[in-house]
Predict the structure.
Amino acid sequence: MSEKVRTQLDSRGDRARTRALVVGPYPTRAKDAGRAPIARLAEAAGLARAIDLEIVDSILIALSEVRPATFLGKGKVEEIAEIVKSGEIGLVTMDCALSPVQQRNLEKAWETKVIDRTGLILEIFGRRARTSEGALQVELAHLDYQKSRLVRSWTHLERQRGGFGFLGGPGETQIETDRRLIEERMRRIERELDKVKRTRALHRKTRQAVPYPVVALVGYTNAGKSTLFNRLAGAGVLAEDLLFATLDPTLRQIRLPHGAKALLSDTVGFISDLPTMLISAFRATLEEVTQADVILHVRDASHEDWEAQGRDVERILEELGVSGENRKPTIEVWNKIDALPFERLAGLRLAAQRKEGATSKTLVSALTGEGLDALLLEIERLLSEGRVTREITLDPADGEGLAWAYDHAEVLARTTLPDGAQRLRLRVPPSRAGELERRFPQGEAPGRAPRRGRAS
């Protein structure tokens, strides 16, 4: 066990950081056995640090079987009880899913608070939500999780700060509250989120009328999505070396190499064993992914478990319906190449040249900017596939036609001719090709002789 560390004040400066023990109890025959246990434990510790816990120690346990009462065997429960007592541990995080009975039994045995992986992720999300929509989504997931527990589940309603009540509060004054109150609150939140979903759909419809294509960033948490987003869009999204540094979705306009514009969407990071209730609660937000024209799957090429992380993201995309026949054009963005040794980087460059279905691969460093030009060119190439491009020439007085072009199509190029006429190169998705042809029947495919006319 690590040497006792002096308690420090957290970033708010108003209370001492909770001393925590991280326990990784991984069944030897688990479905996730392909993931290195030490990497899983490191990720669990990272989750705990994301809410300012002071990690006193982390313990790796290989389980031959899961015990119904306490998840762990009796000997391990007693061993950890000694560690908790001697280390003055205020919280034990179990990197697994605990039943309410298992959680309560462990709290009695260790005489301290215990939360499982789902509870820890919910606590992180509760602290990170910045928009009213994000807060509602997290609260809905939290209430769903707490329905069967009713332990410290309502203390967050008495507080103004983030978080959802696992790590202390003013007391357990509402522990006896009837489950009906939870379900009523859940129904109210669901109605509010339905309104949000309809508003988001209207905004999306408005964007489609412009129509700028949408490029969505997805990836494992801490893969560097927000740093890449900031590089491409010149935005100021929070980008820290923390799990789930970004929770609320962000949308910014970017310009592609040949002048076309697109909308770039940053989304919440994925993680292995992401609670189903969170996927459900955030489905409205993640619709940005399902509606995107191109998906950028950002992967941390420097992480030892990057292949398993990639599979986890693919599984969640399948749950969202973005797979099979619905598969969107995808670019795997192998990020953080600045942290790779030369031999590893050379091997990845060779691997990236191999084509696998509709997915292409690009190596970048969002930190240094290396590879971003090639990435933008690849985005532009995928967006142009299947889209209809036409060149039109408008009379100098045809302001109505010029306005329509900017409102309803991508204007890739504009040239003013000697007589004042406007030569435009327009691009629209296939679904709007007919409308473009009706508006500008004089339009020609690029490279053909121009014909002048007015919008119909």
The radius of gyration is 26 Å.
